[in-house]
Design goal:
This protein has one domain: Rossmann fold. The longest helix is centred in the middle third of the chain and has 25 residues. Helices cover 38% and strands 21% of the residues. By secondary structure, the protein is α/β, with parallel strands linked by helices.
């Protein structure tokens, strides 16, 4: 994500992700009140420390209000059942390149917790054994640990030539992405199973797609990303009118600012599951039970009313990834072209056509 708090930063362009928090808040509070096993907070825990982790915190702008209501909800539950209120510790976790400086320089002064940074890939172990009481993640579990190998193999039926993400009409590509996503979610759960106490809870907000939607008149987050891919291909294949004579022009394709082979080899490390796909993966876990699963219609889509706002949102999320692969010289031109394509599409301009969903999952760690 783009660092800092400037006009192109994630801080200034993450209202879409923020949208579902208000919808999810009462659900998460209710699950804490009814499902969190508070005995585990004090069992073998002489200091009475309650630990919470946000896996994929980014720069904290959307994380802080969630950490606040989670600590308040746990605090309310404990104050009726224990004379001693624990000290809250919150682990803010993200990749090592995350802008933790912006996060810690903007921590709320009235927070109820002590804050710690935990850099690293959350698909692996990050925290001490049996130390975590509540885990949270929002808009992070769509990230893959790696691009599926088959989609970059020219000899594979899943070679994703000319695209930067899977599409519904490419079955082999979709299957390769889903297989990688399944492995990554299973790895995430195995790591959390070691770190979490029995009876602890995890709540996830996972961006996804509905089982059925009409790509002719509707769109989802993958649609947005595939449109960006078309911009990269346009920049690799540009149309030139060559003047041959006074009355004759010849249309010729020439190599653009990007290598077409470079674009063909680029794929985004994201997967946006349908609810039944995610549920099937979670049900294979031997360490967690699914306590609740809700499909939320993200009101954040109405916070991006213009093509400019939407282009800025995706730039804040993708610029660093694109720059690492293609270089910084193309970024302004790429997102200007992207903005123009969004503006020219009556489908994309109407937020009511956005059928992207948020999947709220609450898991409970089984007691051994």
């Amino acid at each position: 994500m783009n660092a800092g708090d400037g006009p192109l930063s994630y801080v200034q362009n993450s209202s879409y992700q923020r949208g579902a928090i208000d919808v999810a808040k009462p659900i998460i509070e209710q699950e804490i009140a009814t499902k969190l096993d508070i005995k585990q907070i004090y069992s073998n825990n002489p200091n009475g420390i309650c630990t919470i982790a946000d896996f994929g915190c980014s720069t904290g702008h959307n994380s802080f209000p969630v950490m606040q209501f989670i600590t308040q909800a746990i605090n309310r539950k404990l104050e009726y059942s224990s004379p001693k209120i624990p000290e809250f510790h919150v682990y803010f976790s993200d990749v090592v390149t995350n802008d933790f400086n912006t996060l810690f320089s903007s921590l709320p002064p009235d927070r109820l917790y002590r804050a710690t940074a935990v850099p690293g890939d959350f698909h692996g172990r990050l925290l001490p054994e049996y130390s975590l009481h509540f885990g949270y993640s929002a808009w992070s579990l769509q990230w893959l640990t790696e691009i599926p190998k088959a989609v970059t193999d020219r000899d594979s039926p899943a070679w994703n030539k000319g695209e930067i993400l899977y599409r519904g009409d490419k079955k082999e590509v979709c299957e390769a992405y889903l297989e990688q996503y399944s492995r990554d979610i299973e790895s995430f759960l195995k790591s959390r199973a070691v770190e979490m106490v029995g009876g602890g809870l995890m709540a996830f907000l996972v961006p996804g797609v509905p089982e059925f939607w009409n790509p002719e008149i509707e769109y989802t987050i993958p649609s947005y990303l595939n449109l960006l891919g078309s911009c990269l291909m346009d920049m690799a294949k540009q149309l030139l009118l060559v003047h041959v004579s006074r009355s004759c022009f010849i249309e010729m394709l020439f190599q653009g600012r990007l290598s077409k082979a470079k674009v063909d080899s680029f794929n985004l490390p994201f997967y946006y599951p349908a609810p039944q796909q995610l549920k099937a993966i979670l049900e294979r876990s031997h360490s967690f039970t699914i306590e609740r699963m809700e499909i939320l219609n993200n009101p954040g889509k109405y916070t991006l009313p213009s093509a400019n706002a939407r282009a800025a949102f995706f730039r804040a999320c993708l610029e660093r990834l694109l720059t690492n692969y293609f270089g910084s010289e193309i970024i302004d031109e790429l997102f200007d072209l992207y903005r123009k394509k969004l503006s020219a599409s009556p489908v994309f301009l109407n937020p009511d056509n956005d059928k992207s969903i948020e999947i709220l999952i609450v898991l409970k760690r089984k007691t051994d």
